[in-house]
Amino acid sequence: MKKLVAILGGGESGVGAAILAQKQGYSVFLSDLGQIKDKYKQVLADYNIEFEEEKHSTDKILSAEFVIKSPGIPDKAPLIVQLKEQKTQVISEIEFAGRYTNAKTICITGSNGKTTTTLLTYHILKNAGLNVGLAGNVGKSFAWQVALENIDVYVIELSSFQLDGMYDFRADVAVLMNITPDHLDRYNYQMQNYVDSKFRVIQNQTKNDFFVVCVDDEITQNELKNRNIIPAIIPFGLGEPDQNAAGIKDGELIINLNQNQFSMSILELALQGKHNAYNSMAAGIASMVFNIRNEQLRESLSDFTGVEHRLERFLTVHGIEFVNDSKATNVNSTWYALESISKPIVWIVGGIDKGNDYSLLHGLVKEKVRAMVCLGKDNKKLHEAFDGIVKNHVDATSMDQAVKAAYYLARNGDTVLLSPACASFDLFENYEDRGRQFKLYVRNL
């Protein structure tokens, strides 16, 4: 009799895991407490995979050999607690897919910058002609690609939630962009728990693997002192680089790796700004591990078009620039956004607060923000943090209201910045939905 695998969550990662599990000869049951999108239901039907929605058949799930869960389901969920109590292994889709591929992996994590760095690394490798896949938090499901395609290198963006469900998986190149407080509600409000989660990206690495890490990030550097790191550490930062490191000297971005040196003017980078210099260095190092030629690397770093919903300079209406930074779901991301804009700002902020410390933003908000629009069901914490700093503030409970309010508060030459510093689930499906609605209502002005 076939062994049963239960899959919790019927989104991109869950459906991909279901296809791979079936291909590997398991009996598959997929269960989602919410509704499954029609496009995924059609795929499950096409593959004749048993599924249910808007409920969990607990007895059946508890009888599974092991369980693959969506990263969105917390470990504190009653069903997960039950599974762990009876010693059923609960893993992520990434862990599962890793068992069935010999492809090389570049795994990128961090509190901020990981999506841009992941897409930029993918862009470099693809342009260089490698057979490359994009997976994790972006692109297609890793498991789905492992099931149906034959890829040589995967560039995988990993959240801490995905890393938490990974045990035997090994990254050939691990990239840690930075660590700033985020998702602390999932980590018992203990920063060390979150740090430990991020450092899982290097678990199982050998001395032949690479760990690309930011030398300017204080939390990361302190953690490195307390750990025995086995892979080769390749640091990057804004200072002058050593051998096997990346940095900046005299306006040139320089990467030294294994006797090769790459350099280009920071003015030629497609992605401008301090935070983007980090992203370009990390992506450049990860690509040079795969022997990408300097000319190809230079071309890709200078023609990359950026990421939707991340500091996306979207439209100018009557002299007012609208910037979509919906992907800023934590305080540190918003700090980067505020820091990068030189014009007076009308700031759209708010959503589900994940234990945010807004005091980090006080200086920048005082200096740059002319008015703010609080967009959320509960804006109490925002008002406590900023009412004494920003005189003009308005509450909104829909994106239509927020965009109109920001437009009326802004003057010619201002920037309206959507950079929420919060999760989106109170009013939107996800940060993409939030960003798309922002763009829709700006177009309608």
The structural class is alpha/beta
Q: Give the low-pLDDT segments.
A: none
Overall mean pLDDT stands at 92
Number of domains: 3
Please report which band the strand proportion falls in: under 5%, 5-15%, 15-25%, 25-35%, 35-45% or over 45%.
Answer: 15-25%
State the fourth-level CATH superfamily of the largest domain: Mur-like, catalytic domain
CATH topology of the largest domain: UDP-N-acetylmuramoyl-L-alanine:D-glutamate ligase
Under the CATH scheme, the architecture of the largest domain is 3-Layer(aba) Sandwich
- Number of strand segments: 20
Q: What do these coordinates show?
A:
The structure is a single chain. With 445 residues, the chain is of the alpha/beta class. The protein folds into 3 domains: 4-91, NAD(P)-binding Rossmann-like Domain (Rossmann fold, 3-Layer(aba) Sandwich); 95-303, Mur-like, catalytic domain (UDP-N-acetylmuramoyl-L-alanine:D-glutamate ligase); 312-443, Mur ligase, C-terminal domain (Protein-Tyrosine Phosphatase, Chain A, Alpha-Beta Complex), CATH 3.90.190. Helices cover 35% and strands 23% of the residues. It has helices at residues 12-23, 38-46, 58-62, 78-85, 93-98, 114-127, 142-148, 160-164, 191-199, 218-225, 274-288, 294-303, 331-340, 362-368, 380-386, 399-409, 431-443, and strands at 4-8, 27-32, 50-53, 66-69, 89-91, 104-109, 132-136, 153-157, 173-176, 210-214, 232-236, 245-249, 252-257, 260-265, 312-317, 320-324, 345-349, 369-375, 392-396, 415-418. α6 (114-127) packs across α12 (294-303). The chain is globular and about 70 Å long. The model has no long low-confidence stretch (mean pLDDT 92).
